[in-house]
Amino acid sequence: MNELLTAAQMRAIEQAAIDSGAVTGLELMERAGAGVVEAIYEEWPAFSKPDGENEQKPRLRAVVLCGPGNNGGDGFVVARLLHQRGWVVEVFLYGDADKLPPDARVNYEKWCEIGEVLPWEKCTSDRWGRHPLVIEALFGTGLTREVPDDIRNVLLATLNCRRVAVDLPCFINSDTGAVLMEWPQNLSGVSAGHVTVTFHSHKHGHLLGAGAALCGQVVVKSIGLEFCYEAIGATTAEVFPYLIGKLQGQRLSKIPSAHKFTHGHALILSGGPAQTGAARMAARGALRIGAGLVTLGVPPTAQQEVAAQVTAVMLKRIADADALSDVLEDKRINALCLGPALGLGEREANLIRVALESGRNCVLDADALTLIARDKDLFEKLHPDCVLTPHGGEFARLFPDIAAKLDAPATKGPAYSKIDATREAAKRAGCTVLFKGPDTVISDQTGVASVNAAVYDRTVPWLATAGSGDVLAGFITGLLARGFSPVHAAEGAAWLHVECARHFGPGLIAEDLPEQLPAVLQSLSGSDQGNAV
Ligand SMILES: NC(=O)C1=CN([C@@H]2O[C@H](COP(=O)(O)OP(=O)(O)OC[C@H]3O[C@@H](n4cnc5c(N)ncnc54)[C@H](O)[C@@H]3O)[C@@H](O)[C@H]2O)[C@@H](O)CC1
Ligand SMILES: Nc1ncnc2c1ncn2[C@@H]1O[C@H](COP(=O)(O)OP(=O)(O)O)[C@@H](O)[C@H]1O
Ligand SMILES: [K+]
Description:
Elements: H1 7-19, H2 25-43, E1 61-66, H3 70-84, E2 88-93, H4 102-112, E3 117-119, E4 133-137, H5 149-157, E5 162-166, E6 195-199, E7 217-221, H6 236-239, E8 242-243, H7 249-252, E9 265-269, H8 277-288, E10 293-298, H9 303-307, E11 314-317, H10 321-327, E12 333-338, H11 346-357, E13 361-364, H12 366-374, H13 376-379, E14 386-388, H14 392-398, H15 400-407, H16 418-429, E15 432-435, E16 439-443, E17 449-453, H17 468-481, H18 486-504, H19 512-524
Helix pairs in contact: 2-3, 3-4, 8-17, 8-19, 10-11, 14-15, 15-16, 17-18, 18-19
The structure holds ligand NAX, adenosine-5'-diphosphate and potassium ion (K).
Keywords: ATP-binding, Isomerase, Lyase, Metal-binding, Multifunctional enzyme, NAD, NADP, Nucleotide-binding, Potassium
Domain YjeF N-terminal: 10-231
Family: Belongs to the NnrD/CARKD family.
C-alpha cells in the first residue's frame, strides 16, 4: 500500500469494513495488536529464542503504556499476546477505565483476567532499568491536543529502553506530522521510538513535518482492510496522495533506435557574470538525466565566463526577451528552466513572460518564483505544463495565505497539512507544484499528490547544501524534455535527487549530484519490480 491516509480516512475505511459485516472492530484491534507483536519479533529476533535453550535465561519483560482510546485498546491486546508468549508484562493506564471505548474496554477486561492494570501515578521514572521493552499505546490517530506533562515525563524517562510506538508516537499529529509535545533541544537526533508499527498504510504524519524524524522506523502491518476502498466511494489516485516508490528502470530507458532530438532539447537561462554557476549545475543535471540536448541561454556579458566552463552543454546568447522569442522559433526546444540565480530585474520578468507565453514545458525555480510572486499578471500566465519548485520561504512568498494556514497550530482535526497546502497551491497556480524539503510534496492542478520522503532509510541531511535545488530544477527540466508529464517529471526528479545524495553520502556538494546519476540509473535498469512513478 503506497497510499497515505489521514486519520479521518483511516477511520472511514475501518468503519466501512465493520459496516459491511466482514469484520468487527474487536477483530481489527486483535489484528492490530498481533501486528505489533509480529513487528517486535521481526525487529529483535533474539526475543524468539525459546527459554528452553538456556535454563538460566530470565523471562522477558515489557511495560505497556495504554491510553484512554482505541490506541490503548491495541496496547491491552499486545500485553495479552506477549503474556501468552511467556513475557512478564506490566500495564499502566492513562485515564479512567470506565470511560474506555467499547472495544478497548473488552480488551482491558481480558487483560484484567491475567494481570493488574496500574494507575498512571505509579508509572514513575525510577522503574525503567528492569524493562527491556516499552510499548507506547497512549494516543494514535485520535491525538487532538498537546500531550500533558505527566505523560511527557514518563516518555522522556523511557528513552534508554527499547521502544515501540503503536500506530504513531503519542505526540505526533497523524495528519500533519506536527509534534504536540515539547521535545528537549538536547535530544535532537534521538527518536521517540525504535519502531512505530502502523496499520494498513502510512498516515501522513509518518512522513511529513518534524514527526517523521521521531518515529524511529515505521513498519506497516496489514489488518485485512484492502478490500474497502470502493466502500468509501474512493478511487485511490484521486483521493489518496501516495508515497513515491522506486522508479521503474524501464521508465528511464531510451529507445535503442532514437536520435538525440527524440530525447528533447532543454533550454536553461543563466544569470549574469558571477551568477552563472546555478544554471550551469541545472544544465548538467538536465543533460545527465537524459535530455538529448541542453543549451544554456546566457546574457552577452556572461558569455565568456560560461563558455570557459561548459563542454557538452551548448551555449546561446540571449540578451533579452526578444532574443528569447527568436530562439524559441526552434520548436525542438521543448523544456525551459528559469530561476536559478537568474536575477530579479525587468529583463528577467520579461524572459519569464516570453517563456510562459510560448506554452512550452517550463520549470520556474528560485528568482523566477520571486518574480511571479510579485507580479500577478505573470502568475496568471502559468499553465498546466509548468512546474513550480518552491522551498518554504518561496512558498510563503507565492501563497502567503496558504502558508499561514499551514503554520497555524492545529487545535482540532482534520489538521491542515503540507499535502493540503501543496494541493491548494497547485490548484490556484493551475500547474504542478513541488514543495521542497525532506518531505517534498508534489501536486498537480487536479489534486493528484505524492510525497517524496527523504526520511528513515532515505535520510539525506547532506542534501541541504547550497545549489542542490538548482540541480533538482535541472533534473525536472531534463525529464520534461524527455517527454515526461510535469507531475511525473517532478516526481521522478525528486526521487532520483535523493537517490543521488544517498549514493554519494556525506560530504556531498551540489556539483556531485548530477555525477551520481549514471550509477543510480544503472542500478535501476533491469530492476523493474519497484512501484511505478
Ligand atoms: N477504529 C478501529 O477499529 C481501530 C483502531 N485502532 C487503533 O485505534 C486508534 C484510534 O483510536 P481512537 O480514535 O480511540 O483515538 P486514540 O486512542 O488515539 O486517542 C483518543 C483518546 O485520547 C484522548 N486524547 C487525545 N489527545 C489527548 C491529549 N493530548 N491528552 C490527553 N488525552 C488525549 C481523547 O480524548 C480520546 O479519549 C488508532 O490509532 C489505532 O491504534 C486499531 O485498533 C485498528 C482498529
Ligand atoms: N534535510 C533534508 N533532507 C533531504 N533533502 C533536503 C533537506 N533539506 C533540503 N533538502 C532538499 O534540498 C534541496 C534544496 O533546495 P533549495 O532550498 O532550493 O536550495 P538551493 O537554493 O541552495 O539550491 C531541495 O530539493 C530540498 O528538498
Ligand atoms: K501510540
